[in-house]
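Below is a typical protein record.
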Amino acid sequence: MTQYSQAVDGTITPEMHRVAEREGLGAEKVRDEVAAGRLVIPANRVHLEGGSGEGAVKLDPCGIGRAVSTKINANIGASPNHSCREEELLKMQWAVKYGADAVMDLSTGGDLDEIRQYLISRSTVPIGTVPIYSMIAEKPIEDLTGDDILATCRRQAEQGVDFFTIHAGLLRSSIPLAANRRLGIVSRGGALLAKWMQANDAENPMYELFDEICAVMAEYDVSISLGDGLRPGCLADASDEAQFAELEILGDLVLRSREAGVQVMVEGPGHVPFDQIQMNMERQMEICHGAPFYVLGPVVTDAFPGYDHITSAIGSTAAAVHGASFLCYVTPSEHLALPGPEEVRAGCVACKIAAHAADIARGLPGSRDLDDRIADARSDFDWDRQVSLAFDSDRAGEIRLRGNDIDEDNSDDYCSMCGRDFCAMRISKEVLD
């Protein structure tokens, strides 16, 4: 039985207990949220058991939904132009160190099964994939068969993948709606399936085989992330007819997933003007029956390549305040190149800032505790404590050392921004005392 089917039956699983412990909630609350479909716990039974060999670890389950803290995902993956197992492991380790609650392996180059297994066996966080990426590495998209799709999903489920992105909502009837866009179809999975439908003069095979895919996922308790194949790739295409036509189909697929006992979340738009974000979040929650919303960004301006970890963090904060539960990071390399470890770090930190800021704005219990502790450290001019409490203490410590002529005990009651004579906080203490 899956986490969802057990919750519906009233059972509190060990994974639900663990999520409750991590979030400071009652286990009954977690169970009820899972049963309602508002919270998912991506936890493949194989990954829960852990791998074998040097470096092998077990999954530490986390919950994704509005009742818990906002989670973030980091995309990694080798490409046909660059594939290195150890580099992907380093990216995953950095992603987790800098805040990622889950990691998606989007590899399309190298030994995909070997890379995937290597990462799963060494990951304490849920691992996601887009199975169609493996399929196209083995044969041209036009030649893909239903047997290929089901075999790939089963193979990855057997390896321990915790959640799949399945682009089942993009139907043939919606493809012409993208013809008037500036950027057309920017989802790789969506574009590949559109090409398959055109070449085979048939409906989306992911849609046609949806019940069979769900049966495989239920067997291993793989969560489904319903991919948005028609997500907007620029501001001009946001909130258009194509995007919302797919969203209606995704809403129906949410119910079919639950009927199959499969945990389900829904993926959302990538590029959205800031003033449209709230409407998009609220519309998704209504159409998709409260399923957790997983958004890429949204990126709120197209004009800053190289800084899209920032443009997406702005959108992510608004999205998480108004309904999103799961934020996919965007790195400085977005739209430009395959990200390396440093870009992964920058993307994770920016996304974590967005998630944390949103949780504070939502008033989640305890979400501001760290902020208050850092404020107290600043008030006390306790630089060591301030740096140690910082989310990225390595970065904070580097800047502190670089920018100041520090006493041996690091007890100066000022920093190089104002100097001793003009330090507002030191002067304020004197005046208020």
The longest strand covers residues 71-76. The chain has two domains: 3-362, 369-432.
